[in-house]
Amino acid sequence: MSKRTALFDRHVTLGGRMVDFAGWEMPVQYSGILDEHRAVRESAGAFDISHMGEFFVRGAGATTWLDGLLTNQIAKLAAGEAQYTLMLNEKGGVIDDLIVYRLGEDEYLLIVNAAKIDEDAAWFRAHAADGITFEDQSGEYAAIAVQGPVARGVFQNVFGEALSGDRNRVSRIQFEGADGFVVTTGYTGEEGFEVVIPNSGAAALWDALIAGGAKPCGLGARDTLRLEMCYPLNGSDLSPERTPLEAGLGFFVDLTKDDFIGKSALESQKAGGLESRLVAIAVTEKSPPIRPHYAVWHDGAPISETCSGALSPTLGYGIAMAYLPVAVAKPGTEVEIEVRGKRYKASVVKKPFLKRN
Predict the structure, then answer these.
(1) What number of CA atoms fall less than 13 Å from residue 116's CA on the CB side?
(2) How far apart are CA 96 and CA 85, in angstroms?
(3) Measured between alpha carbons, how far is 187 from 193 in angstroms, rounded to an integer?
(4) What distance lies between CA 341 and its chain's CA centroid?
C-alpha cells in the first residue's frame, strides 16, 4: 500500500488526481499540468514534497565525514548555506543526488529523493564513524515548495517577513508553534523557497500558503518545469550505471579535495575521456508527446533512448534528455526520436531548454 503524506486529505479536498510515485500516493495534477506549469512560470505554485527524505548529521568531524562520502566540498559551506551534491558508488555511478544544508558548525540537514530514503540511510549507516550521529527523520517531517516569480510575496504574506534574496540558504523558522526550516532552493528554475516542518504543522502551513497566493501544483507540472531547465531526475537521468561526469554534473564534483567514494573512478574516466554525455534534444517538427525510453536515431540507426521527455508547455514543442555517444553529442547535431513506430526530426541543443534571467 502506498504511503500518504500529512497533506493527503488536502490534496483530495482540492480535487488532486492521486497516483503512486516512489511508493507514495501523490497528486499528479489539480487543475491541469499546463495550467499549473504556467502558474509557476508566471506567478507561484505550491508543491507537496513531503515524500522526500530528511536526514540530520551531527557531531565533531561531521564535515570531514560528509566530505568523504559526497562529491561536492562540504567544507566550503558556511552555516546557513546549502549545496547540491551527489552520493556515488565505488564505480562512480550515482546512488542519489541530494542537497546538503549546513545548520551549524557541526550540524547538517540532508534532503534526499523519496525512492532512495531507505537505501541512502543504509548507505550512510554502513559508513558510520565515531562521534558522528546520523538520524533519518523522514517520517517526522513534511515539506512544501513554493516556486515562481511572486514566491517572495507569498512568503511575506504568510510569515510577515522578507525572504532571503540569496539562493541556497537555510534558516530556522517557526509557524504556529512548530519549529522548522526555510530554504531558498527549488527544482523549477524559478525563485522560491521550501519549508521543512513537523508533520503536525503541515496542513495549516499548506492552507496559509494557498491563501497567501500559491496555486496547488502536482508532480506533472514539477516534471515539465524541471525538464525545461534540464534538471536531472534520479532513476531516469541519473543511475548507478552513469557517472556525474557523463550526466554533465562535473561542476558539482570536486576532484581536488581529499578522497571520497567514487573519486578514483571519476579520475580514470576523466583521464580516458567520456564515451557518452547526457544531452538536451529538441524535437524540430510537430510530434506526439515525448516520453522516456523512446529510441533516438542518428544516420539511420538507433543509438540510444530518451531518459526524460515531455511536451514543453512554455516552448510548445517536444523536449527530451538522452545519453548520446560523444561524437553526436554536440549542439546542432541532427537526430530523430521514434514515437509509436514513426521517427520525428530533432536536434541536440545547448542546456537548458529554457533560459531564465
Answers:
(1) 23
(2) 9
(3) 10
(4) 32
Q: Which three cell numbers stand for residue 22?
A: 516512489
Rounded to two decimals, what is the model's pTM?
0.97
Cell of 188: 523549477
CA gap 220, 25 in Å, rounded: 14
Quick: pLDDT tens for 85-119. Answer: 999 999 999 999 999 999 999 999 999 999 999 99
Question: 70 has which bridge partners?
Answer: 87
Question: What's the CA gap between 304 and 22, in Å, rounded?
Answer: 25
Q: What is the CA radius of gyration of the chain?
A: 20
243: which strand partners?
none
Q: Spell out the domains of the chain, with CATH numbers in brackets.
A: 8-47+139-228 (3.30.1360.120), 275-349 (2.40.30.110)
Chain centroid, CA 312 distance in Å: 18
Residue whose C-alpha is closest to residue 84's, from 124, 113, 61: 113
Q: What are phi and psi of 264, to 5 degrees?
A: -60, -35
pLDDT tens figures, 45-66: 999 999 999 999 999 999 999 9
User: At 174, phi and psi to the nearest 5?
Assistant: -130, 135
The answer to whether 116 and 234 are in contact (CB under 8 A) is yes
Q: Which residues, in sequence order, are bridge partners of residue 178?
A: 175
Planar angle of CA 315, 216, 180, nearest 5 degrees = 115
- C-beta of residue 183 within 8 angstroms of C-beta of residue 193: yes
